[in-house]
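User: what does the whole thing look like in 3D?
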Amino acid sequence: MIRIDERISKSELTYDWIRERIIGREFNPGYRLVLGAIAKELGISVVPVREAVRRLEAEGLVEFERNVGARVAMVNSVEYIDTMQTLGVLEGAATALALPQMSQEDIDRAQSINDSMRAMLESFDPVVFTSLNEKFHRALFHRCPNPHIAELADRGWNRMAGLRSSTFSFVPERAPRSVQEHDEILRLIREHAEPMEIEMAVRQHKWRTVEAYREQGHHAVPSPATAR
Amino acid sequence: MIRIDERISKSELTYDWIRERIIGREFNPGYRLVLGAIAKELGISVVPVREAVRRLEAEGLVEFERNVGARVAMVNSVEYIDTMQTLGVLEGAATALALPQMSQEDIDRAQSINDSMRAMLESFDPVVFTSLNEKFHRALFHRCPNPHIAELADRGWNRMAGLRSSTFSFVPERAPRSVQEHDEILRLIREHAEPMEIEMAVRQHKWRTVEAYREQGHHAVPSPATAR
DNA sequence: GTATCCCAGATCGTATACGGTATGTGATGC
DNA sequence: GCATCACATACCGTATACGATCTGGGATAC
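Assistant: Here's the predicted 3D structure for the full assembly of 456 residues, as structure tokens:
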């Protein structure tokens, strides 16, 4: 019997509720998440709200200070760069591991997403473009047989979404190049290139975006690549 | 003035308390963590205990089932293999990124740890050996300038500790080879080999351990063994 | 006018309480 | 003797309550 019930706990509902609002930019970075206020808004008590917030904290979407409260994680260039760098490593590995499980349809789907991206290079909308970009990459690694890596990559993307509504608002000039690199990755996959080569293509693709962002100089902060 | 206070929340204390016991094998995999019982043991209420348990769940040390409760994550071969594989990726990358920050003392310290490991190959104690092994690897990547990767690698090691008190209890025959590979990694670092080469050496080192474990066939047991 | 102190409001951290769900056990019917 | 059902128990999920801590602003001293 299918449980129509399938009831989900209030803390989980709250978790989704807050998270949606962070990802959807309704709650901007720095927005203060007051437990009592959210509880009243949702018509529940503060306990499940608290639990939801702590979970979001564990995933890096929210910052918490003892006896002060929670706020949506701040836009911070260093964080952004670190997250992108980490995601490059994870997603590269996840994609390489997913290769044996990848079907022709998976590849076709990714290709069609990338075609959509190319099509919109003319009338460029950074937010939509960024969202398609995420879809493209998820399509490539979602078959990853190692659930740990897949989940970490997933969290990485969520965190990114929280930190920046749109990567390509900051480095629009990278968009054409990015589409090109996507094609290149798909080509490597189709031609059954060495998994390591594909992994590095994916990683470098992300790292080049970081480079572009860094050179753009949106941040006064020096790169971690300091001299010994 | 330094706050002698520096009071830490009860939920945090509880988190540490439980975690110590899991890592220290006082709570074995499958051990049931009853909120009320722990609360009474520590003389506090269940609320902070609950929070601590959820945090441990987020890190994978504990499994939680709605309306049933929490138990220490089960020894599960698949989980173990996945975790090791992920850790190989993360630690390889973290080590490579740490290279520019690495001092001569760091390298010497790692070398001396490995020497201790070699020394104990004769009278082999898997638990101590595994612990030294962890120290060795942490010594190599702890300078990693990207805190995200470092933290993920850190969590990976903790998770491993929870899943297996000692890797080398299961594949003792790999110990000598492992020491050798450590030397090789140190050699590459000293000779300023390509970061990528070092990253792959670290990754492959871990993956070979997984291979050894897998071939050993210990994992005939899917082991949650509840099968009501 | 500036710095310090103190108080009030806001918000968190934790305790206690209670209803809901799952699990095991003994009674009942066959 | 076996399967089924009902009930008791254990434990979780959430609500409510209250003391603790932080923050900001106004009063006071100089």
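In plain terms: Residues 77-98 of chain A form the longest helix (22 residues). The beta strands of chain A are 32-33, 62-65, 69-72.
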